[in-house]
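Figure-free illustration: sequence to structure, shown twice.
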Amino acid sequence: MRKSVLVSGSNGQLGRALQEASRFFPDLKIDFLDRNQLDLSQIGTKGKKIAWPKELLDTHYDYYIHAAAYTAVDQAEKDVKLCFQVNALAVKHLAEYLSTKNTKFIYISSDYVYHSLQNTPFTEKDLPQPKGVYARSKLAGEEAVKQTIADYLIFRTSWVYGEHGKNFVKTMDRLGKERDEINVVFDQIGSPTWVYDLAKMLLIIIDNGKAKETIGIFNYSNEGICSWYDFALSVMQFRGYSTKIFPVRTTAFPLPAPRPAFSVMDKSHFKETFGLDIPHWRESLHKCLNSLRD
């Protein structure tokens, strides 16, 4: 029998990547919900009865991938209520509902939940210390899942980019065509994640049965580490742009939300549990840029 999967956030980066990757998994029946079908800003708001989409009411799914999220990190400092509504409160109601249907809940979280002065790669056992509204909302979403549904997987990922939506790689690709020189911060260190690698990983572990037998929190990003400066430089080099990049400190770009200076994650637990290799970020960046060129 084909495993059935429901994905929210179909028009987001991860949702689009899951749609593209799904064609390589013929044994999975995958349905997608967009914001019009599942409006997280309205789920469980005071005084309103939850109007679940017919997909949730009429169909049983083996897995639910929560790919929808409020991701405007700086705007979240103003939209506190909305950010928590989307990233935590709606998640709690979804988890409660899906727990009655024996559906496995897969929640995508963020490296922002760590954010301490630690300068060695974070493991899942390290204490989260989220600083901004977005970061706190993602940890609250994690807690909502853990406390509400017994069968779950949480993946903390970082520096996500891809062919769709707004992201760092697409911005650098555009600036490489438009400008002779740009400034990019060098004092934030992490690991980029090509969203297609993340999407493919999720479908692989569902397809091979590993997701069914596993519960818990896992770090996932591409292998290797870099600064945003290194990342930008690689985009320019791969593209052959002559744009000059100047490394600057974070203080050169004062922004509302605090950024982790170091958010490299240790993925040993993931690799030992799921037995999958993870591509290096340079390899995946090259593939993404080739895809953008096409």
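We now fold a second protein in the same way, so the two outputs can be compared directly.
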Amino acid sequence: MHKHKFKGFTLAEVLITIGIIGVVAAMTLPTLIHEQRNKSLEVAFKKSYTHISAAFNQTIAEEVPVFTVSIKEDGTNPEVDYNSPFAQSMYKKFRKLKKIGIKEKGTYNASAKNYTKQKTMQVPQCSQYMSGAEAFITPDGSIISIVQNCGALWITTDTNGLIKGPNALGHDIFIFRTGRTENRLLPAYTESEVLLDDTGHTVTENGKPVYNNTEETKDKCSLTSASTINGASCGSFAIQDVCPYDETKTYWECLP
């Protein structure tokens, strides 16, 4: 009878195979994680946008004025209202809201970033997100904040909520607006930011803040904008699912 000899793998061959698998995994895993993260952000955005749109349209149907000028006792900024009648009515469309406190806002602001995640997010001056305007956690865990300012009603959401992150404009933070007579929920196409000096303090002139209108900060949804609120106008691209700087990709595929 013939004896059959079975040849197994040597230790060196096993180690080489494991090494190759490790290299391939190291090359592909970050891409898979990035794609999964962006898909989650897309799903969260669509859900929050649907809920906010429904609440907005219901409030419009009730004929609540979008913009109401109030007479303040001190006579200043009569158009600014951090809790306007429209905001109050819209908030009521959510089953239960949890108000975000000052301390929580401070922690959030310290972690929030702009679109490229290269700079800490400065307070958007019109929407006043996480500053003058109140902010609430909705039943699905997202954040909603509404303020009347700059001649419009501004609605900001963080689709991932207070803690989950990435807490970045254009990723999970999106700003919407409607004009005095528009009665339509539209993505913000502009926002204002104050000018900061080299130490990070607000530049003032005659006691009033100076707004940053430099050329390098005008585009607020790009990879090159130097704006601390770069990402404030990304909502339109997210809704259309179009990359703002690469026509071959969807919005969520090209997130930095």
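Summary for the second example: The CA atoms of residues 115 and 231 lie 5 Å apart.
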